[in-house]
Specification:
heterotrimer, A: mainly alpha, about 75% helix, about 0% strand, B: 9 helices, flat
C-alpha cells in the first residue's frame, strides 16, 4: 500500500513472482469459499455464523482488491478513492437495514399476519 | 507533455504525464467503481430489506436455491479473476500471446458463469415457479442477480472486443471487415457454445445419461453445432500467425482498466454469494 | 498542414508515425453546425450546457409564473388540478435537473480547466457524450408536452405508489423515469471526467491546497454526483421494472414497501441539494475576494467545510421523512446529523464575511449578486435549521414554509450565485462586459421580486397552507399573502427578463472588455478573451494560491519561466489538441432512440411493427456502434505550433 512504486528494473524479480502469488491467492480464495459453504452447516449461534461469513467475505474482498486489482502496488490515492465509495455504500446499507429492522418499519400487512398468527396460537 | 515511452521501459504504476502519476484511465475506472459500490450497495440493500419482512406466501429461499451450483459458479468467477490478473500481468511484460490466452480463458469462465445463471434462472422459473412478478423474493432476487449478470455479460463483451483489438494489424490491411467478422465470430462462438452446453445439460437432466440422449441433442441442435464449428474455425483462422500488430505494453492500461471492472464484478459476486445465498441457510 | 503532425495522445511520439487506424470519418469543421455537434472543446461544451440550461431556466420560470397566477386568488380556475400537477412536477424537475445542475456544469466545463491550468478535460469525448446525453434526457423529460399522454405529473420526487401503473396509467411517468435516468448517466459521466481532470491535469505547482475554491467545489460536487446518483438509478430501475415488467418493488399487495422509494430517493435527493448549492458557494468564493481585493479568508477552512458538507450530506436523508414514523432512534440520529451540517455551512458564511471585512469593496454587479447570496442563503439556512428539529418539522412538513425555505436556498442561494457568475465570467467568455447600470437594475428587481414572492410563504406555511394543492378557499386567511406572492413573482419575472435581455444585448453589442477586466486572482484571467482553443499558450507554473495575482507581482520571473516552458514544449512537438469526434453524439442519439421506444410505446401493441422493442434494439445498436467506433478511433490528436506572440503559426489544421 505504500506508494513507493518500484522502478521496473528493480521490481523485475517481484514481477516474476507475481504469477505464483496470483495463483496462490486464487487457491486461497477457493478454499475460503469452501470454508464458507462448510460454515453454514455448523450448529453454532446464528450471530456467530453471520460474523464468520462476513469476515471471510471481507477477507476475500480485500485479497481481490489489493492483489488482483493491484491496489497494493498502486498509488495510495486509488485506495482512498475506492474506499470513499465503499465506506459510504457500506454505511448507507447499514443505516437502511437498521431503519427497516425497527418495529416501526414492519409493513402493516405483515404485522396483521403476525397478529393473526399470534391470536390463532393463543 | 513528457513522453513516457522516451524513458524506455514503461512503469505501469506511474504515468509522468499526470499530476498524481496515476494514468487517467485507471483513475477514471477507480472513480467509476466507487460509484458502482453505491449502485450495488443500494440494490443489495433492497434485497436484504425485503428479506426482513417477507409477506405471507413468499417463496422460501432455501427450498429454491441450489448451493452446489452457485458454489461452482462462484469458483468459476474467482478463477476468471485469476486469469484476468494474469492477462494484465502478461501484457505489462509485453507477452501478447500469453495475454490472448488468458483473455480467452477469462471469456470462457465468464461464459460458464453466465451459462450457470441461465440454468439457475430457468430452474427457478420452471421448476420452482418463482418469477420476477409473482413474489417479492422473485422481484428482488432476479433484479439483483440479473443486474450482476448484465455486468458480467458487458464484461465478457468488453473482453472479447479487447481480444479482437489485440489483432489490429500494424499495416492496416482490411481493418474494418476483418475486425467486424472477428467480433461476430467470437460472439457467435460464445453464444452457440452456451446454447449447446445448456441443451446437453437439459437433455441429460430429462433423459438420463446415455448415448441416445447425446445423439438426440446432437440431431436436434445440428444447426447450432455447425454454426459453432464455423465460428471456432473462423477464430482459429483469425488467430493465425500474421504480420506485426499495434498492441503492446503501452496498451496495458486499457487491459488493466478492463481488468479492474472485471474484478469488481467478481467482488460484487463475493458479497452476493454471502448476503443472498449463504445467509438463507443459517 | 505541415505544422500539424498527426500523433498519438500520450507518449507515443517515438513510435512509427502514421499508423493505420480505424477512423471512419474525422470531422474538422471549426465553424458552423458540424463544429458544434462534433466539438470536444470544453469551452464550447460549457457554452452549450449554459445555453440549454438558460433555455430550460426560462421554461421552468414560465411554469412557475403559471403556478403563481393560479394561486393569485382563492378558487381560481386558470388551471385545472391536472394541469397544476403537471406544472409543479415539471417546474421542480426542470429547475433542478435542466437548469441549475447544467448551469453548474457549464461553469465546471468552461472555468475549471482554465483555473487549474489545463488545456482540456481529461476525456474530451466523454465530455461531449455527457452533454448530448443530457440533451437526450431533457428531450425525453419534456417530450410529453407534445404527445397525448402529457408531461409527467407525479411530483419531482415521484413518490411511490403515485408512480405506479394503477395511479398513473399513461406514459407521462415513463418519460419522467427514463428522462431522469438519462440525466443521471450524463451527470455521472461528466462528474467522473471532472474528478480525473482536477486530480490529474493540474498545472505544475498547482497543489490541491492551491486549487481555487470554485475548482474545489467542482471536485466535491462531482464526488457527490458519482456517489448519490447510483441510489436514484436503482430506485428508477425499480419503479421502471414495476411499470414495464410488473415487478413488485412498490406493489403493496405482493409485499412491496413504497416507503423504500422515499429512502432511496432521498439518499440521492439530499446530496442533490448540495450538488445544487456547492457550485454556487464556489462561485461566491471566487467573486468575493476579487471584489474585496483580499485573498479568501480562511481558505483551508472553506475547503474543509465544503468537504464536510459533502460528507454529512449523505447522513441526513431521512430528515425529509420525519413524519413517516421511522422510530425515535432514527429520528433523533437524523435530527442531530442535520443540526451538525449547519456548522460547516455557518463556518463558510463567517469566512465570506471575514473576506469582506476590511477589504476595498468594489460594488460591481457580480459582487451585488454575491452579497445577495450571502444574505438570502442565510435566511434559507435559518429556516433549514428549524426543520432539523423533528417536532417542529412535523408542523412544517408539506407546507408553504418548506416551499419558502428551499426557494430561499435555491433562488437566493444557487440562482443568485449562478447569475452573478455569468456576470463575473462574461468578459472572459465573450470579451464583452455587461453594463453596470442594467446589471445592477436587474439585480435589484430580482432581489425585490424574489423577497416579495417567497417571504410571505413562511407565514402561509405556518398558517397551514399545504404544498401541491391547486387552489384554496377564500375563508382560510391565505388570500392576501398569496396575492402578494404572485405580484412578487411577476416582479421577479420582470427582473429575470431584464437580466436576460441585457445579457443577450451585451453578447452582441456590449461594451468591449479588456483582458483581465476585474483584476482577477486566478489563472483563467491570465489568458486572452475570447479564450483560444488551446487555452494556455504555455502551461503556467503555479507559485501561490492566488496564482494570477502572484504572476502580476513577479512578471520577470514568470516571463523567464514561460519562455523555458515554451521551448521545452515545442521540442516535444508543440501543443497537443484532441481531434473532434462525431461518435459521442452518435451514442447519445442511440440512447435517445431507445429511450423513446421504451417510454412512448406500449409493449403489447397490435400486430405489425413492434415499435417498443424495435426502437429499443435499434437505439441500443446505434449506441453500441457509437461507443465501439469511439473506442476504436482512439484518443488521438494533432499538434499546434504557436509563434512567439502566442498566435497560431499554422493554418487551421486539416486532414
Amino acid at each position: 500500500m505504500s506508494d513507493s512504486s518500484h522502478s521496473p528494473a528493480a521490481g523485475h524479480a517481484a514481477e516474476e513472482s507475481k504469477f505464483a502469488a496470483y495463483v496462490q491467492i486464487a487457491m486461497l480464495l477457493a478454499v475460503i469459499t469452501g470454508v464458507e459453504i462448510a460454515v453454514i452447516g455448523l450448529p453454532f449461534a446464528k450471530w456467530l455464523l453471520v460474523s464468520v461469513l462476513v469476515v471471510l467475505s471481507a477477507v476475500k474482498f480485500m485479497f481481490v482488491i489489493f492483489y488482483f486489482m493491484h491496489l497494493r502496488w498502486d498509488k495510495v490515492f486509488c485506495t482512498i478513492l475506492f474506499f470513499i465509495g465503499l465506506i459510504l455504500a457500506g454505511g448507507t446499507m447499514w443505516a437502511l437495514l437498521q431503519l427497516f429492522s425497527t418495529e416501526n418499519s414492519v409493513p402493516l400487512s405483515v404485522a396483521v399476519n403476525t397478529l393473526a398468527d399470534l391470536s390463532r396460537l393463543g | 507533455m513528457t513522453s513516457q515511452a522516451a524513458t524506455g521501459a514503461i512503469d505501469h504504476h506511474h504515468d509522468h504525464t499526470t499530476s498524481t502519476g496515476i494514468p487517467n484511465k485507471k483513475l477514471l475506472m477507480w472513480a467509476f467503481l466507487a460509484s458502482d459500490c453505491m449502485f450495488f450497495g443500494t440494490l443489495i440493500s433492497t434485497h436484504l430489506i425485503y428479506r426482513l419482512h417477507p409477506p405471507a406466501g413468499n417463496p422460501v429461499p432455501r427450498q429454491i436455491f441450489d448451493i452446489p451450483l452457485t458454489s461452482f459458479s462462484t469458483f468459476i468467477l474467482l478463477m476468471s479473476s485469476l486469469m484476468m490478473a494474469l492477462a494484465v500481468n502478461a501484457i505489462q511484460k509485453g507477452n501478447l500471446k500469453s495475454m490472448r490466452f488468458s483473455l480467452l480463458t477469462t471469456i470462457l469462465f465468464g461464459a460458464i458463469f453466465l451459462g450457470c445463471q441461465v440454468f439457475e434462472f430457468n430452474n427457478f422459473v420452471f421448476e420452482h415457479h418463482m418469477t420476477i412478478t409473482n413474489s417479492i423474493l422473485g422481484t428482488t432476487f432476479f433484479t439483483l442477480t440479473g443486474t450482476h449478470g448484465t455486468h458480467v455479460a458487458i464484461g465478457v463483451l468488453w473482453l472479447g472486443l479487447m481480444y479482437v483489438r489485440s489483432y489490429k494489424s500494424a499495416t492496416g490491411e482490411g481493418l474494418w471487415l476483418t475486425t467486424a467478422l472477428h467480433v461476430v465470430a467470437l460472439v457467435a462462438a460464445v453464444l452457440l457454445s452456451m446454447k449447446l452446453v445448456l441443451s446437453v445439460v437439459w437433455g441429460l437432466q430429462a433423459h438420463g445419461f446415455s448415448g441416445a440422449t447425446l445423439a438426440g441433442v446432437a440431431s436436434a441442435q445440428w444447426l447450432v453445432i455447425v454454426g459453432a464449428l464455423i465460428a471456432y474455425s473462423a477464430l482459429r483462422w483469425f488467430a493465425r500467425p500474421a504480420g506485426p500488430v499495434q498492441f503492446d505494453q503501452s496498451n496495458a492500461v486499457d487491459v488493466e482498466s478492463m481488468g479492474l471492472y472485471w474484478h469488481f464484478v467478481d467482488i460484487v459476486w463475493i458479497v452476493i454469494f454471502t448476503a443472498v445465498y449463504l445467509l438463507e441457510y443459517l | 498542414m505541415d505544422a500539424t503532425v498527426k500523433s498519438h495522445f500520450i507518449g507515443k511520439e517515438d513510435k512509427a508515425p502514421a499508423k493505420p487506424s480505424f477512423v471512419l470519418w474525422r470531422p474538422s469543421a471549426k465553424t458552423g453546425l458540424m463544429s458544434w455537434l462534433t466539438t470536444v472543446d470544453h469551452k464550447k461544451i460549457g457554452f452549450l450546457y449554459g445555453s440549454f440550461a438558460l433555455f430550460f431556466f426560462l421554461v421552468g420560470g414560465v411554469e412557475a409564473l403559471l403556478i403563481r397566477l393560479q394561486l393569485m386568488h382563492p378558487n381560481n380556475t386558470l388551471l385545472t388540478a391536472q394541469q397544476y400537477n403537471t406544472l409543479f412536477t415539471m417546474h421542480g424537475t426542470t429547475m433542478i435537473f435542466l437548469a441549475v445542475m447544467p448551469l453548474g456544469a457549464a461553469f465546471f466545463n468552461f472555468i475549471m480547466p482554465l483555473q487549474i491550468g489545463a488545456r482540456d478535460v481529461a476525456f474530451p469525448r466523454l465530455n461531449a457524450f455527457s452533454l448530448w446525453t443530457f440533451v437526450a434526457g431533457a428531450i425525453i423529460l419534456n417530450i410529453g408536452w407534445f404527445l397525448p399522454d402529457g408531461a409527467p405529473d407525479a411530483g419531482w420526487f415521484g413518490y411511490a405508489p403515485l408512480t405506479s401503473k394503477l395511479y398513473n396509467p399513461t406514459h407521462a411517468t415513463d418519460f419522467w423515469i427514463l428522462g431522469l435516468q438519462l440525466l443521471g448517466v450524463a451527470s455521472i459521466a461528466a462528474a467522473l471526467n471532472f474528478i480525473v481532470t482536477i486530480i490529474n491535469l493540474r498545472a505544475p505547482g498547482m497543489t490541491m491546497m492551491r486549487l481555487p475554491v470554485f475548482t474545489w467545489m467542482t471536485l466535491i460536487t462531482s464526488f457527490l454526483i458519482i456517489l448519490s446518483f447510483p441510489a436514484i438509478t436503482i430506485a428508477l430501475v425499480e419503479v421502471m421494472f414495476d411499470r414495464q415488467f410488473g415487478t413488485n418493488f412498490f406493489e403493496v399487495s405482493n409485499g412491496g414497501m413504497p416507503i423504500l422509494w422515499q429512502h432511496l430517493f432521498w439518499i440521492f435527493g439530499h446530496p442533490e441539494v448540495y450538488i445544487l448549492i456547492l457550485p454556487a458557494m464556489g462561485i461566491v468564493s471566487e467573486i468575493l475576494p476579487t471584489f474585496s481585493r483580499k485573498p479568501l479568508f480562511g481558505y483551508p477552512i472553506v475547503v474543509f467545510s465544503g468537504a464536510s458538507i459533502g460528507f454529512l450530506g449523505f447522513t441526513v436523508w431521512s430528515h425529509h421523512m420525519f413524519t413517516t414514523g421511522m422510530g425515535t432512534v432514527a429520528t433523533k440520529a437524523f435530527a442531530l446529523a442535520t443540526m451538525a451540517i449547519a456548522v460547516p455551512t455557518g463556518v463558510k458564511i463567517f469566512n465570506w464575511i471575514g473576506t469582506l471585512w476590511g477589504g476595498h469593496l468594489k460594488m460591481r454587479t457580480p459582487m451585488m449578486f454575491a452579497l445577495g447570496f450571502i444574505w438570502m442563503f442565510m435566511i434559507g439556512g435559518f429556516s433549514g435549521v428549524m426543520h432539523s428539529a423533528a417536532p417542529a418539522d412535523a408542523q412544517q412538513q408539506d407546507s408553504y414554509f418548506v416551499v419558502a425555505h428551499f426557494h430561499y436556498v435555491l433562488i437566493g442561494g444557487s440562482i443568485f450565485a449562478l447569475l452573478g457568475g455569468i456576470h463575473y465570467w462574461f468578459p472572459l467568455m465573450f470579451g464583452r462586459r455587461v453594463s453596470e447600470f442594467w446589471g445592477k437594475l436587474s439585480f435589484w428587481v430580482i432581489f425585490t421580486g424574489f423577497n416579495i414572492t417567497f417571504f410571505p410563504m413562511h407565514f402561509l406555511g405556518l398558517n397551514g397552507m399545504p404544498r401541491r394543492t391547486f387552489t384554496y378557499d377564500g375563508n382560510m386567511g391565505w388570500s392576501t399573502a398569496n396575492f402578494i406572492a404572485t405580484i412578487g413573482a411577476l416582479i421577479l419575472g420582470v427582473g429575470i427578463a431584464i437580466y436576460f435581455s441585457v445579457v443577450i444585448y451585451t453578447y452582441f453589442k456590449g461594451e468591449k472588455a479588456g483582458e483581465d477586466t476585474w483584476d482577477g486572482r486566478t489563472l483563467e484571467w491570465s489568458i486572452p478573451s475570447p479564450v483560444p482553443e488551446y487555452n494556455f499558450a504555455v502551461i503556467p507554473t503555479v507559485h501561490a494560491r492566488d496564482a494570477f495575482w502572484y504572476e502580476k507581482h513577479h512578471q520577470d520571473e514568470i516571463a523567464k519561466e514561460k519562455a523555458e516552458h515554451h521551448q521545452a514544449e515545442a521540442s516535444h512537438g508543440g501543443i497537443h489538441m484532441p481531434f473532434q469526434s462525431i461518435y459521442p453524439l452518435v451514442a447519445s442519439i442511440g440512447i435517445l432512440i431507445a429511450a423513446i421506444g421504451i417510454t412512448a410505446f406500449d409493449s403489447n401493441s397490435a400486430p405489425g411493427i413492434h415499435w417498443k422493442l424495435g426502437l429499443a434494439l435499434t437505439g441500443g445498436t446505434i449506441m453500441f456502434l457509437g461507443i465501439y467506433l469511439w473506442a476504436l478511433e482512439g484518443a488521438e490528436g494533432y499538434h499546434l505550433h504557436l509563434d512567439d506572440d502566442g498566435h497560431d503559426a499554422s493554418s487551421q489544421p486539416k486532414h
